Amino acid sequence: MESQHFANRAGWIIILYGLALSFFAAFTPFFNAGFLFKGNVLLAGLLPYLIYAIAVPLLPGTITTSVGILLTLLHTGLVITVRFFSGPEILIFILPIMVAVLLVPLVVIAMINTNVHKPEHRVMGH
Prior knowledge:
mainly alpha; two-stranded antiparallel ribbon
């Protein structure tokens, strides 16, 4: 029987995609000759996926997958807008942080719906 922690394969794929997208977004075009790596953009981009990764093993199902797909679509659109169409650079830093804050209720719901944090009641035999 498969472990519940790995039951949501789509959720784990979303997290891997988010890691790659955040790494790609951290490379800022520098003049016309190269790229500059910005660690703060990488960390800001990884933050929503870190919070999402807490909910994936606790709440496997369509809600978590749907939220993950919405997260990746939003983040992909942001990266394309800022990197390819010269959108405001501050958005690539601020928007992932705001999305991470919006993901906190998903983690709260996941923690409420799971028995991970509840102590087991064992009957001790004499």
